[in-house]
Amino acid sequence: MTGLVALAGPAGAADLAAARMQMALSLGWHIVLACFGVGMPALLLSAEWRAIRTGDDALLRLARQWAKVAGVLFAVGAVSGTILSFEMGLLWPGLMGTYGQVIGLPFALEGIAFFVEAIFIGAYLYAWDRLPPRVHLLSGVPVLVAGVASAFFVVTANAWMNQPVGFVMENGRVTQVAPWRAMFNPATPPQTLHMIVAAFMVAGFGTASVYAVAMLRGRRDRYHRLGFMIPFTMAAVFAPIQIFLGDYAAKFLAERQPTKLAAAEGLFRTGPNAPLSLGGFVADGRLRYAVEIPSGLSLLVGHSPSTVVQGLDRVPVADRPPVTPVHLAFDTMVGMGSLLFLLAAWYAFAWWRRRDLPRSRWFLRFAALSGVAAVLALETGWIVTEVGRQPWVVYGRLRTLDAVNPAPGLWAGAVIVALVYVFLTVATVYVLRRMAGAPREQEPAPRAAAYAPQEPE
Question: What total number of domains does the chain contain?
Answer without folding.
Answer: 1
